[in-house]
Every structure is written in C-alpha cells, then in structure tokens.
Design brief:
homodimer, alpha/beta, eight-stranded mixed β-sheet, two-stranded antiparallel ribbon, 26% helix, 22% strand, globular
Chain lengths: 323, 323
Amino acid sequence: MNQTSIDVLEIGSFSCGGQIASVHGREPKRVKVARNGPDRIVDLNGDYIAGQCYVQFTRLLKPKYPYPLMLWHGGAMTGATWESTPDGRPGWQMFFLRQGFDTYNCDAFERGRAGSAPYPEVYKEAPIYRNLNEAWSLFRMGPKGGYSTDLNKRKIYAGQQFPVAYFEQLGAQFVPRWTNHGQESLSAYYEAMEKVGPVVIVSHSQGANLAMEAAQKRPDLIKALVLIEPAAAPQLEPADLHNVVQVPHLFVWGDFTGDDGLWSDYRAVADEYAQQLAAAGGVSDTLDLPAQGICGNSHVPMMDRNSDQVAQHISDWLFTQHS
Amino acid sequence: MNQTSIDVLEIGSFSCGGQIASVHGREPKRVKVARNGPDRIVDLNGDYIAGQCYVQFTRLLKPKYPYPLMLWHGGAMTGATWESTPDGRPGWQMFFLRQGFDTYNCDAFERGRAGSAPYPEVYKEAPIYRNLNEAWSLFRMGPKGGYSTDLNKRKIYAGQQFPVAYFEQLGAQFVPRWTNHGQESLSAYYEAMEKVGPVVIVSHSQGANLAMEAAQKRPDLIKALVLIEPAAAPQLEPADLHNVVQVPHLFVWGDFTGDDGLWSDYRAVADEYAQQLAAAGGVSDTLDLPAQGICGNSHVPMMDRNSDQVAQHISDWLFTQHS
C-alpha cells in the first residue's frame, strides 16, 4: 500500500440540479426544537429545493490524469462507498488521489448529504430501506439467510475478501432510497458534469446502470466509464449506438455471482450490453476478477481486502485510455 | 485568502455508535429496483444499524495544532456546512486545514451520510423539514416572509454578509431531521471522540447546544469548544460545573439577532450559561462580531462573505488556548 501524502489544492463541495418544490395546506405545528429555548412554529408549507445531487471534490495541486474521476455510488448508498474501507484502510478515493486523479465524490439525488424533500408532500412514494439481512446475500457475503448479529454464526462464502467482521460498518452506510427516481438522479448528475467538464465516471451497481445511460445521452461529458457490477443495464437503442461507442467501457465483476440468481440475471443483461457495444466498434472491456485468478470479491470490491489490487487494474486501464 | 496547497496524509471516513434495531411483521413486496433486471423481493423485516454518526476526516502530514478539530453541524444540516461556501469559496474546513488543523467533519445521527433507520418502524415520529421560507428569517437573511424565489423580490437586511444570490445552495444542504433525538446524537458523538482522542469541537446552532452538554459530561475528551450561535443551551447543574470549567468556551454571535425574537431568546439562554461558566472560573469568551465592528453576519458565518475573517479570529483564539 502506498502511504505517501498528497498535495491538495482544495477540498470542498457543491450542489447541482434541483428545482423549487412547494408544499401547501399543512397545519403549522408548535414544536420545542432547542432545549431551554422557547417553542417555535414549524411550518412545512413553503418552498424546498428538490432534486439536487451533492458533489464533494478533492483537487490536487498537480493532477497526473487529464480528467477528473467522478464517483457514483450504488442504491441505498452514498459517497461513503469510496472512502475508508469498513476495516479502516484507505479506500478507492484515496487510492485514486494517490494515483494522481482529482476526485468528485457524489451523493445522488435524495441520498445522504444531497438531502431529500418532504414525503409524502413532494415525493409521493415511501422510501425503502436496506437491512443487514438483505445486504448479506445481495452483496454476496454469503448465502441468503446467512447473516447473524453473532459474528460466529454468519454463513460466509469460502475465500470471501470482504472483511465480514466489519460488516456493520457497511450497514451503517445505508440510507433511505426511492426506486423510481433514476431520471431525476441523472438530470442532477448531468448538471454536475457540465459544471466540472469532461470526466471519467467510476460507478457502482445502480449507479453503473445510470452511468451507462449517461454515456448514451451525453458522451461529450464522459471520457470513460468504469462499471463496478452494474445492476443490469439500460436499453441500448440503435439510435444511441453512435454516442455510446465514443466512450470506453470497463465492466468489473467479482466472485460468487453464480450463487445468487439475481446477480446472474443482472450480469446477463450487462454482458449483452457489453457485446452490443463491442459489435458496434466501441471499447468494451471486461475485468472478470475470478477469471483473472483474483478470487473471493464481493459486490463491493472497493471495500474488500484486496481493494487496492482491484483499483490498480482499473487505474492501469484508465491510463491506457488516456494519459 | 490563503491559496496554498496542503500536504494530506489521508482522507477517509468511519461510522461510530449505533446498535441493531429490528423490524418485524412487514409484508415483503416485489419491486422493480433495477431497469431491465428482474423484479426482486424487498423485505423490510430484519436488522438495521440505527443511531450511528458519520465522521469524515482529513489528516495532514504535519498538523500544526496539537488537537484535531471536530466539526458538528446544526439542525437539519450536515457536514456540508463546513465545506465550500454557497458562492463557491473555500469554507471553514479548508481554512482550518490550511491553518494546520486535522479536521473530523461529522454528520450527526440520522443526518446525511449517517443514514436513518425506517420510519415509522424504528423512529416512531415523522421527521421535519426546513424550507427556504423558514430558513430565510431563521438564518437571518432578512425579515420573516422576506424570501422569494425571485431574487429581486427578496427582502434582505442592509449590510447582509451572506451571499443571498446563492441562497438556494444553502437550501440544497437541508436534510430531514428529528427534534427529539439529541441524546442519541451525543451517544454516537462520544464514541467518535473516544476513537479520535481529545478534540476541539467547532459547533453550530443545534450542534453547539449538544457540544455544551458534551463538555459537561466528557471534559476529558474536549480541549476547547467553539460555539457558533448556539440554539439556546442545556441546563448547567452545579454538579457539572467542575467538569465544564476544564473546557475553554468561545461563543460567537453574528448580526441582526435583535430583529428576530427567537434569536434574542436563544442568545439570552446561552449568555446566562456563559456567565455561570465565567463565575465558576472557566474560560468563557464571547466573540460578538458586531460589537467588534464586524457587521452583517447571518446565522451561518462560515458561509458569509467575510467567513475567512471570522475563522481567523477563531483560529487565533484556539492557538491562544493551546499551541
């Protein structure tokens, strides 16, 4: 592991996208908000900003890569995905900073620091939440029903690279999510990319599915796509092919995908997309980790014990595309 | 403004606090989560991590201050408070990094990247939301009812330091909040301080009220408190005085507090606390900005045009306490 320091010009954040959403007809309430302060009227009626994403940047004094990295997390997650690993090692954000990439680490519309507008007034549907039990099999720590709060009773896939003793640190990263707001997420992301300029997107799971659509619609803004275990893929219409072929794609897959039918299904959809792209003349590479002899990776390779090894492959690929 | 770069050893994050909360008796639902993927069962029943805070750190290669700065945001906000200002200048986190402080920028229990557990299953009460109309007067941009989505129609206090043309960037930072969970927030923060070691807390509004209680209970973990416009104050029991006097307190107040009755009331409670502390022999300093000839500051001086000037006063005070 590279323990060198980095020379940082600026760390900061901004919001992109969103518009005014107004709430009317709610009864104001008198609430004690601050201890030992007077009650105050809380009136939910009024104007909110809804639909924005949050973008946190770290700009190096002397970046070595010609384009910044934009990091798009997966469903029910935030930019915390890319920070420290659950067992406390430096994560991919730090890895790529050390490799000379500026990073723009995003929280999508409605997730984390992006905030969410009032439900049920602005968002009509209730959010869903991810529990540890679902995450255990969905993120392929072990088989369905294999999670236990008792560390010794967990059913773990043999050779698992995820540090399962710290699984609750992953669980602590989950945030409420809505399932039907992908287009709104993309609208905010487009504004962020317009502000930052052409970027490389490193994306995960649900975020990777969105990133593929972004390449269809806005290839002018995207210099390469890294797709970590995309949760399926958008439709690839013939009319979008001339856009998509402009953007090199790298698909990255971990281990144990055959055990859970869901990931086999998602991967089949994404593999077909990758083949269509290759057939049309695009750069469509796949880093199948087990096929490369890198075994035991979960759905979150950026948190696995060999996270730096996987990141190095991605970094090498990116420097092959642009330098 | 200091535009020098900083030598950073590591950027990362972790969760602290929280425990397992279980949900039972909900009907699983079949939901299309990923486009072009199969439906999948979403089962909210199970175990969640609830009660954690999120801590994002930036550690310098060679910090100049002997203690790290822990940043505690105010109500309905997140650590975004301390990042870039709404008009895009470097914020206080960057200012203090350049001054040689390590920073630990937190999202409290249930806010932002800390995530929140299912409502109504785990949290019985609904969150409240802050709209732009409330924030306009509460954050003292101008009088009650003074907000308009039309920039030209906003009623703005004369001499206002907040960059009101970018007010929506502040609005985009608001997140859902609960009003009755202060003790849970503190529990998670105590764990974070135990992990990091003794810290200086720079706190805002609701966070400052919590920080005062933290000094009563855990003076061993707190080397100094900076209290930016505390939303009132906790009770100061005689039994806690011997703890509180160990921790130097700096109270910081902006302008226009007389115009809105709420802030006069909150300040009166905090001023009385400051006097009790001083009478007991503690370091109890107040930086009353208008009294120092620094006029026009809102409730969020870390976002105001003169944010660096205010931060410099705080930094100077901190170096007077410890160096």
